Amino acid sequence: MAMTSLQFGYAGMNIITKVSLNHGMSHFVLVVYRHAVATAVLAPFAFFLERKVRPKLTFFIFCQIFALGLLGPVIDQNFYYLGLKYTSPTFGCAMSNLLPAMTFILALIFRMEKVKIREIRSQAKILGTILCVGGAMLMTLYKGGIVPMPWSSHHHSSKADAASSHDSDADWIKGCLCLIVATLAWASLFVLQASVLNKYSAQLSLATLICFLGTLQSAAITLAVERRPSAWAIGWDMNLLTAVYSGVVASGIAYYVQGLCMRLKGPVFATAFSPLMMIIVAIMDSIILSQSIFAGSVAGGVLIVVGLYGVLWGKVKDSKISTPAQESMLPTKAIPDVTNKQNESMMGIDIAVFNSKIKSEEK
């Protein structure tokens, strides 16, 4: 539910960001403001809620978090905003749906995801990832006929189509390359963040550090690239709304929810929900912007849903197989070494019985 709700936030971010970029806002400055807002929002919660459970920040972990700030706020978002500027929100969302496939491949390379071709659960994850990516691309590349909706209007303006038709081929190719680089950086962030969470399990603190370091890195790059002081100016307009909304929803809440999901289910499970953004954008375009929903969008949406079911089914089977193996290892572990709160609550009855037996023997 959390990852599904997050896709609505991403869809809204794509729409308002495109408006701000069209009005001349620098994407470098937007990244700085976005993560500055996210840091300010997350820092108080991380300080008070995780004060007693925050692990020790070693130099190696700090270097990994520094890399996360470079992959996410700096590389991913700057290249994504640049690609969004040269193309369109719909195409940007479609390219983002390459994320599950890229994450799945990276997880295989770093041995974070196990695949046995002869097992049905592995086949389901592979086929589901292919269907998710294929459905997302179908929604973008194939329109088909108009699907009538009760709330939609059939009178459309051709200004947007006329404007997009005049975009140069060079800018379009440049935008595609930027979006591919952004998606690869995003997938790398998912894989590295899942590894960091095994050593630094405080999700709020980790998200705050990523946003803070990303703000410093982005500010340094922006000062070197953006020499115009007027580019930093911001008022009570769409630019401020974009920075605040993106910082709170797409950075602050997103990093925490993604980290929590990755710790519980793994990086592939977390990224499997990203294709839903294409469906949400299509529906929002129909309701808010009165644009038509085409048969290609419906067909692509069906493929995405089926693909998601395949990936989630495979992950559920993985968890069912790994859980009995973990439970069989519990008796060999010393009771004081149990650190997971859920395991402590499940073992609470056994511990109580064990302690009562010791007390009865002492008496």
UniProtKB/TrEMBL annotation:
GO terms for molecular function: transmembrane transporter activity. The keyword Protease does not apply. Its main location: membrane. Pfam families: EamA. Residues 8-140, 174-312 form the EamA domain. InterPro entries: EamA_dom (IPR000620), EmrE-like (IPR037185), WAT1-related (IPR030184). GO terms for cellular component: membrane. The chain crosses the membrane at residues 28-50, 57-75, 95-112, 124-142, 172-192, 204-225, 231-256, 268-287, 293-312. Keywords: Membrane, Transmembrane, Transmembrane helix. It is a multi-pass membrane protein. It is found in: Membrane. Belongs to the drug/metabolite transporter (DMT) superfamily. Plant drug/metabolite exporter (P-DME) (TC 2.A.7.4) family. This is WAT1-related protein. It comes from Taxus chinensis.
